[in-house]
Design goal:
Layout: H1 12-24, H2 31-44, E1 48-52, H3 55-65, E2 73-77, H4 83-90, E3 94-98, E4 119-122, H5 134-141, H6 144-147, H7 155-160, E5 164-168, E6 176-177, E7 180-181, E8 188-192, E9 205-209, H8 217-227, H9 236-239, H10 260-270, H11 273-292, E10 298-299, E11 308-309, E12 315-319, H12 324-336, H13 352-356, H14 365-372, E13 374-377, H15 385-403
Parallel strand pairs: 2-3, 2-4, 4-5, 5-8
Antiparallel strand pairs: 1-9, 6-7, 6-11, 8-9, 10-12, 12-13
The structure holds pyridoxal-5'-phosphate.
Length: 406
């Protein structure tokens, strides 16, 4: 049996929505993007949602809006996909890495000692769809001694008057803490709609605004939207209307808008997300957990509790007491059985760019431990019970073969 790692979910509704866009005569940013933004607001209850062409570009835009630049620091976990830190580097600022906990998310108890007068933003990451401890992070940035360290360098920073919390929720659309959706747990949340994500637009992302008073989120949305279009006062859709040709460029923007033809995919998916696609992911997540809980060598990923609900983006299995080499050998054996698995993530300090910048893996022991024993298993709505059982058997057989030479 061949089991791919994460094929996109494409059904007739999605094909119909894309065809509708193709036949409409309008394929770049327009009504489908607007409709997707409305759906994101409905799902998450965020005040405004702005679609962009990737999580990465969305993060760059937000850091640029907040005026993050050379000399500034942004706190990120060491354990994430590198886009989290790359967005910071693109602004000329320094990513300050913090180790994570056993649940893969940033260790909030280690953040305070990393905050300096240069800290402008904290960017926690909801790894695998498991939300971070946002209550503690939001409490931390409002502590008087942390508040008083914040030095605002522009109008936007002065208006907030404290460190901005931007959640890297690339994985976690649909996750919840105490019934509250990711999307409104921090000042700003960015979801990814990359091809392997729970909801996809092939490539894409969405910025959810939830800024406190005195910010006017609608005003910020309008400004940011313009900044996704080269700082141009009118989008191409508006400009294409009869008589609507005149425009101005009023700021140095980026060109990171999402096309309608991509939004159409996500639009059809999000309409069936919380009542269907997310539940299908949970079905597979629970099947894995039920089976692997029978093995003393298997460490299950964090499980839903009364208050925390995952988005089941990845099934991050860890092998208790396995070495990195054994984990790698087990992945090779699983691959021989036709199952594609993955590792999330290679911690950033192990990657060449970050090594060259001076980050050292030994400074982040939990991140290394999580990485060295982790295998991400296929999890997506199309997987049948039979396929999931096959994956489980492939993992178990491979484990016994490598670790016990059985
Ligand atoms: C945790 C995390 N952050 C950011 C990104 C970047 O997302 P995008 O590919 O939409 O830029 C990813 C993508 O895999 C991710 O896993």
């Amino acid at each position: 049996m061949i089991i791919p790692f994460s094929p996109p979910y494409i059904d007739q509704d999605i094909i119909d929505e894309v065809v509708d866009c193709l036949k409409s005569g309008w394929i770049t940013t327009g009504p489908k993007v607007k409709a997707l933004e409305v759906e994101v607001c409905k799902l998450t209850a965020c005040k405004e949602a702005l679609c962009v062409n990737s999580w990465t570009s969305g993060a760059m835009l937000i850091l640029k809006w907040f005026g993050v630049k050379e000399g500034d620091e942004v706190i990120v976990p060491a354990y994430t996909y590198s886009a989290t830190a790359l967005a910071v580097l693109h602004c000329g600022a320094t990513p300050i890495m913090v180790d994570v906990k056993d649940d893969f998310t940033i260790d909030v108890s280690l953040i305070a000692s990393k905050i300096t007068e240069k800290t402008k933003v904290i960017m926690p990451v909801d790894i695998a769809g498991w939300p971070c401890d946002y209550n503690s992070i939001n409490e931390l940035v409002n502590r008087p001694e942390i508040h008083s360290k914040f030095q605002s360098k522009n109008e936007v920073q002065a208006k907030l008057g404290r460190i901005l919390v931007v959640s890297d929720a690339a994985h976690s659309i649909g996750a919840k803490i105490a019934g509250v959706e990711t999307g409104i747990l921090t000042d700003i949340t960015i979801f990814s709609f990359h091809a392997v994500k729970n909801i996809t637009t092939a490539e894409g992302g969405v910025i959810c605004l939830n800024l406190p008073a005195p910010f006017d989120n609608t005003e910020v949305y309008a400004y940011l939207r313009m900044m996704t279009l080269n700082g141009q006062t009118k989008d191409a859709f508006t400009k294409s209307k009869a008589g609507g040709w005149r425009y101005d460029i009023i700021d140095l923007g980026l060109k990171i808008n999402m096309p309608d033809v991509c939004a159409a995919i996500g639009l059809a998916q999000i309409r069936k997300y919380d009542k269907n696609l997310l539940l299908e992911r949970k079905r597979i997540f629970d099947m894995y957990s039920n089976e692997f809980s029978k093995y003393s060598w298997a460490q299950l990923p964090p499980q839903d509790s009364e208050t925390i609900k995952s988005s089941y983006h990845l099934y991050a299995l860890r092998l208790i007491n396995a070495s990195e080499q054994q984990r790698d050998a087990i992945i090779d054996e699983i691959a021989k059985l036709g199952v594609s698995v993955n590792v999330h993530f290679i911690p950033m300090p192990m990657l060449t760019l970050f090594k060259k910048l001076g980050y050292k893996m030994e400074d982040y022991p939990v991140a290394f431990d999580n990485y060295s024993r982790e295998i991400s298993l296929p999890i997506y709505p199309q997987l049948t019970q039979e396929q999931v059982s096959y994956v489980i058997k492939a993992v178990v057989d491979s484990y016994f073969k490598v670790v016990l030479n059985a």
